[in-house]
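Box 3.1. Reading complex inputs
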Amino acid sequence: MELQAVTFWPVAEAREDDVLVRAACDGDRAAFGLLYHRYVRMVHGILLCRVPPREVDDLVQEVFLLALRKLHSLRDVSRFGAWLGTITRNRANDYFRKTIPAERATEPASEEHAQTRTNDHVVEQEAAVILAVLRTLPGTYREPLLLRLVEGMTGPEIAARMGLTHGSVRVNLHRGMQMLREKLGENAKGTERQKQERATTSEPS
Amino acid sequence: MKDDYLWDGSGEPDPEVRKLETLLGRYRHNQPAPAFGQIMDVQPMKRRWSLSGLRFSFQLAAVGAILLIGVTTLFILRTRQTRNSGPAWDVARLEGSPRIGWHAMGAATGPAKLAVGQTLVTDSSSRASITLDETGRIEIDPSSRLRLLASGPGRKRLSLERGTIHATIWAPPGQFVVDTPSAVAVDLGCVYTLHVDDSGAGLLRTTMGWVGFKLNGHESFIPAGAVCATRPKTGPGTPYLEDASPSFRDALSKFDFVATTPPERNALLGIILTDAQEEDALTLWHLLSRVSDADRPGVYDRLAALAPPPEEVTREGILRLDQKMLDSWWNSFGYGDVFLWRTFERDWTQSPPTAK
């Protein structure tokens, strides 16, 4: 898969965001469309931190439809990103509240299996395991790290979109990455141990 | 400093971060944007009344009355908007519990609507149908996921992310389009079945009329009785009639999606040309623009022997891929006027969907 490593975020866009939010509040759908393009990866990433991957695309659409309906209630247009982030997290929580338990029961028990049950490719399985491990990190580290590694956003872009300071995002990315390395290391050791145990038990006595 | 790369992508790339980016990038957002312009207008809600400061019961009563009037007005406005918006498709449960978003349909629930931006999902034991009076009816097989992208006048667009749909379209040609991860299917007046598997590969089978299939400038026309496979990144393969010989179909499939070296392609092309019958003219016509310059004369000669070109079509013109001559030859097969496609595909592919 050919990927763009990261995206760069021009500072001038911050001022434009305010203009776009005001225009969208006045019913300008094209402006809302531009906001969608600017914030969709943030919304996608926040959801991917919380709900099964297969549900994320649907919920992204629902979050933006909800934001469109509630835009008039946003008092400080400069807080659009933080406001949208809150709507997104609430929507993710609603997903678990409103989904019929029987339906959820048909979903794979662990997140990584949601994507891997049809993938027989080793690399795809590896990606699914890493995503699952990343999702076990504390929320403070999980969101920025996922936005950086999955959605390809830069630290400055994450800070601007989410209404955070550069310093806090930088620290969280650094600590989150450290924690992810440790957990992946533990995970690899555990897998190796299991393989050895299986090999021992399957040997003829 | 390695952390610079993690921070903003600058500096020396950290190999571990780079590896994680590459692996996890497959989960990155890649869906097309909803058509916000076609979503029904949402009236700004009035500011909520604050009850603080009210001292007398008659004031409370007045507030209550105003709220009641407000709620009734909003209800009437909403009902009118829904009626006027018109783009939602009627959804009927055929079997099991299909879902629209997270709302499951059951035997006890009535018909539902699929609005722009919403997704219809069927599990392994569910089937559903969606209908829009002015456009057509689509049956959705089990294990499918279908999203409504646009539903404006003269412009209906769905995205089949996985599964199978059976479409019967009575809208004028070119008004109904289905995006798949590996091609865009433009209805040109027809009945067809479209299948997309979990890898994003697709198969389109036309029963009546014809369908145009396109990705990144790679196009295929699939008339009634024909089938066309499509693959992510590669796009649509060469269409063929379902009753073509197994060796012909096998060679064609390998030619489209497997063979990469000139000797392999030459060998497969030899089988295709040898096995081709008169009815396979549609396949050879597509191959004219898919083979190398060196191979094109052979394809021309075989096609001309099976389906002689009209007077205005010359060998030289076809060998230099003159579009008018190619279109004229296609029209002589009697499947449908390629003018329809040239008119409508431009309109639809001006803003192509993201292909996985």
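In summary: The longest strand of chain B covers residues 155-169.
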